[in-house]
Amino acid sequence: MRRERTNTPLQALATMNDVTFIEAARALAARAMAEAGPEERFHYMSRRLLSRRLEDRELDIVRDAYRAFLRHYDSNPEDARKLVSHGESKPPENVSAAELAALTMVANQLMNLDEVLNK
Amino acid sequence: MIPLVSRRRLLSLSAQSLGGLALARLLDAETRPQLPHFAPKAKRAIYLHMVGAPPQQETFDYKPKMEAMFDKDLPESIRQGQRLTTMTSGQSRFPIAPSIFRFARHGQCGAEISELLPYTARMADDICIIRSMHTEAINHEPAITFIQTGFMIAGKPCIGSWLAYGLGSMNRDLPTFVVLTASHTHPRANVQAISARLWSSGFLSGEYSGVALRSTGDPVLFINNPEGVPPQVRRKMLDGVKALNELEAERWNDPETRVRLEQYEMAFRMQTSVPELTDLSKEPPTVKEMYGPDVDKPGTFAYCALMAQRLVERGVRFVQIYHRGWDVHGNLPEVLPAQCKDVDQPTWALVQDLKQRGLLEDTVVVWGGEFGRTIYCQGKLTPTDYGRDHHPRCFSLWMAGGGVKGGMVYGETDEFSYNIVRDPVHVRDFQATLLHLFGIDHERFTYRYQGLDQRLTGVEKAHVVKGILA
Questions:
Q1: Residues A5, A16: Cα–Cα separation, whole Å
Q2: Which residues, given as ranges, of chain A have pLDDT below 50?
């Protein structure tokens, strides 16, 4: 048996939007915040997803996205609260919801990379 | 068959000193065919596949002489030692089972159509019934795979993928090739499994695979962003995914990475286009009534038929609908009417709807199964109950629109509906004809893979059925 190829837009929608994936992204973001300093968080998540640190030009892309996410969630706290509340597990209470939401979106971004999904 | 293309290309390209990416693009341009070869009649197609194989004897191939032959043995001069499936090869007798359903002539063309298909009968002058289809496979999986991909072993691209590859998209907001699986209603229908292999792009790039909409609940899952993620945040996230995947594509030059890039952008566009597509509230009641009372129930054939119309109206190139449960080995008189009822009115409505919207002239509609069924009975024959086994030597299928002559009956079988006596149409001929309607010469529409210029119709000779062209 060989698993059929599932490189379809339907798969993309599932791994971007399914609550389970969102919850997992938040859990990874929360862990990164708890275990790594602000500059190391992106590498921390990359190591768990890609088994490697991000290259410089990758880091630029990710950092830029994080800043845009943070701007949004800083000025839209209700969106931040909703995003970090998906799933059955509870988000950590002692962190900024906007920061956690922004980092959750970075995790969601990394979890949707071809390098993560493709064997 | 395992798609090895990415590994092969990786290995071959990493050996080059040139920039792999530029080379890959060059190769792509070289293999892409210049289509169409000549002026097309059709731009899109809707293929209604009746999985399990409808019996031609109860639908389109009227055999009045069989009535007097009830329970008589099928003459050896007709069977001619033909190989049977193991479901009936052990039977001591092959008693003839005439259709218990009546036929009448319909339309100006006078086509004989069964009472089980009253709506189809109404549009006899719109359709071309081919009664002389034949295939090489005697079991479902290889037969379905054969008519869909031109090869009995799974792994080759299906018709929809070939057309998506050759002709491309007419609406970048929706997939080029969409698959719908419709539910059947009779609980005792004998159901065959189908799988995504049937809408696979095989050795063609994964972007030409069919995208299957779900038959129950939401047609596409996870179409909405989660709460707390507005569209501009999703867009920013995707811009990053795209940029990071571009770096990955540069690093490894795996074509699958490029496919994924495209699929994520398609997913984003579908988040807007699919809710509009699946919102049937703006369809006029007169249109919905044509499709029948089930039209608002997702997954019914009526719903799928209306959806197919909406898809092609929005520029989708190829829509495949699978309807299962046609494998009437037994209980035929009980199950077949329900199977026919599932599809009859919606199919008629689809053709009329396309016609009213001016789409039928360049949209081909195909209705049919993967093989025929035996005139002899499988299992116990009684005046009110019988079943039919698989029969590859002849079956009926119809086509309409897109340059096909309406009001026509093509080909003929013997009085037992066992052998073809006039104008046989092999599965390959059907495929060659379908491509012809799209302005494609099936012999010149090729893709090099495993050292062979592969084509839908395979390496054996196929003929365009000129007699059914308008």
A1: 18
A2: 1
B3 touches chain A (CB under 8 A): yes
The string of pLDDT tens digits covering residues B134-174 is: 999 999 999 999 999 999 999 999 999 999 999 999 999 99
Is there a domain that residue A44 lies in? yes
**A-B interface: how many C-beta pairs under 8 angstroms?**
134
Q: What is the mean pLDDT of residues B272-284?
A: 94
Q: What do you get for the CA distance between the two ends of chain B, in Å?
A: 38
Asked if the structure places residue A1 within a domain, the reply is: no
pLDDT at B3 over 80: no
* Eight-state DSSP code of residue B459: S
The C-alpha torsion from A95 through A98 and A104 to A106, rounded to 10°, is -120
Cα separation, A15 vs A107, in Å, equals: 12
pLDDT for B4 beyond 50:
no
Q: Identify which of A8, A68, A101 has the shortest CB distance to residue B263.
A: A8
Query: What is the ipTM, given to two decimal places?
Result: 0.96
Q: Which residues in chain A have Cβ-Cβ distances shorter than 8 Å to B195?
A: 4
pTM, two decimals, is 0.92
Peptide bond into B285 cis (omega under 30): no
- Cα nearest neighbour of B177 on chain A: A8
Chosen for mutation from A2, A11, A113 (greatest number of chain B CBs closer than 10 Å) is A113
Q: How many domains does chain A have?
A: 1
- A63 SS3 class: helix
Interface contact flag, B263 A109, Cβ < 8 Å: no
pLDDT class of B221 with cuts at 50, 70, 90 = very high
Is A101 a member of any domain? yes
Mention every residue, 6+ apart, whose C-beta is less than 8 A from residue B187: none
Domain extent for A15 = 11-117
Whether A45 is covered by a domain: the verdict is yes
